[in-house]
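FAQ

Q: What does a record look like?
A: Structure on top, sequence underneath. For example:
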């Protein structure tokens, strides 16, 4: 109590030393400073454009974890604005426009980069990309040069590799059906890479099975794979949403298959090989943080995967009467038994 009273008396003694005009000027000048200091800090708003059905998936959980590791708490010092297309790619232009017009400070996209890039050339974009050079929004991997950077998931290279691995595991296969979504612009180039891999093998031909919407996919029946000895599924957001349906369809045809992400195998698929997508999303949080702190996406290199998953489900192999060679099992990072 004594300390507080002393301080109060000191202030009262000092005041008369100031002239009335000086005191008035001092008070007028001080109010705006106090007002500015009391303004709440602007909370950054990060948009997420995706074909997913939910914002609670392994990839988005990993993204949140990455943000948390950097000190961000959703709703407190960062806002995540999800726009979910629920497998309907026709909604992506509308959803992209919504995020740009909010406005979002940054947009993270795992689908719809082509429409998002048409919508804005200024909003920073951190994207998951199959072929970073395809849409003309990245000048080079090392220096993107525009408002887009992110992570390559190497869809073309890994799709070719998956075909090679399927043939190595089952060398008697002479024809493979490739399930692709024609509504995804990158899928045509990915299929061409798969065709090229088939030509290099020499003894394998590939044909497409197309499903451009969830309705198309759910209408497929096992006989769509008649005449082939195996199935390869291309990476696609809509396919991932319906991975259980795809696995059930392929297993009903009793064919060996290889998928782009481990979750297919966790849901009963035979084999999967591809980039660890949750890891890429966890790393994307660092780019979001750097851009919010002033970095330009033009200077942030497009990164390639550092973690790859090769997962085999022996339970499924046994149910389908298939034998996985020991050499293939030895390469797997995980075997489900």
């Amino acid at each position: 109590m004594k300390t507080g009273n002393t301080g109060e008396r000191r202030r009262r003694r000092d005041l008369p030393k100031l002239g009335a005009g000086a005191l008035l000027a001092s008070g007028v000048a001080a109010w705006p400073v106090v007002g500015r200091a009391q303004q709440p800090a602007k909370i950054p708003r990060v948009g997420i454009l995706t074909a997913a059905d939910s914002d609670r998936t392994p990839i988005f959980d990993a993204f949140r974890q990455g943000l948390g590791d950097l000190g961000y708490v959703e709703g407190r010092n960062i806002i995540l604005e999800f726009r979910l297309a629920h497998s309907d790619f026709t909604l992506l232009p509308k959803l992209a426009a919504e995020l740009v017009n909010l406005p979002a400070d940054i947009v993270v996209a795992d689908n719809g980069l082509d429409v998002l890039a048409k919508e804005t050339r200024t909003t920073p974009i951190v994207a998951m990309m199959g072929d970073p050079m395809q849409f003309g929004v990245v000048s080079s991997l090392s220096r993107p040069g525009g408002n887009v950077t992110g992570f390559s998931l190497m869809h073309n290279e890994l799709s070719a590799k998956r075909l090679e691995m399927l043939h190595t595991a089952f060398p008697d296969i002479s024809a493979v059906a490739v399930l692709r979504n024609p509504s995804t612009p990158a899928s045509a180039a990915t299929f061409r890479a798969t065709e090229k891999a088939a030509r290099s093998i020499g003894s394998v031909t590939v044909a497409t099975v197309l499903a451009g919407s969830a309705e198309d996919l759910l209408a497929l029946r096992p006989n769509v794979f008649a005449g082939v000895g195996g199935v390869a599924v291309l990476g696609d957001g809509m396919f991932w949403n319906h991975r259980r349906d795809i696995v059930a369809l392929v297993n009903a045809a009793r064919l060996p298959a290889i998928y782009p992400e481990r979750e297919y195998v966790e849901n009963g698929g035979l084999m999967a090989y591809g980039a660890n997508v949750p890891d890429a999303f966890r790393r994307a949080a660092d780019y979001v943080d750097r851009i919010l702190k002033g970095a330009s996406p033009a200077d942030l290199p497009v990164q390639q995967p550092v973690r790859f998953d090769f997962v085999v489900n022996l339970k499924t192999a046994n149910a389908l009467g298939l034998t996985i060679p020991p050499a293939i099992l030895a390469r797997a990072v995980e075997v489900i038994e």
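Q: Is there anything notable about this one?
A: The chain has two domains: 45-153+277-299, 155-275+308-336.
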